[in-house]
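Memo to structure team: turn this sequence into structure tokens by end of day. - J.P.
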Amino acid sequence: MALFGRQRDILLFNSINRELLGDVITQQVGYYKISLSKSTTNIYGEAVEKYVSDPTLLNALITRGNQTWNSDDWGPDVTRTLDFAFFRQDLLDIELVPEVGDVIFYYENYYEVDGIVENQLFVGKTPDYAYSSGLENFGSSISILCSTHLVPADKIGITKERG
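Reply from structure team:
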């Protein structure tokens, strides 16, 4: 029988994380959800024009990759990867489910989500996978990590309007 990781411990942990992300670290991003119902696909399942929702402002921990430059016949081009870690409870509260293809706006750049990882667990377990009786009230999934790459704004069709 586990001693730590009950609901009361999780509530304390969530409270500390929410304060740390919102009041201390305060790295914010705009999260655009792809609207699959409005985006039409071709015979290969590719969307020529993607429609996105209005951005949702989220707190995140950001791991920045280095910029890499390559040149071809069209001139120099820059690429960059970033990882955005979101507090899972914040996403649950606003009913946002990250998916591959969504777009994140950060530092005047757009990043397309390539992959989603959810493997950071409080006390190493989650109630969804309690294989022994008595463990269904222990543990919690803490964060969702989105791996992204830099996308030129003209390729996703999002433009910033001047007011």
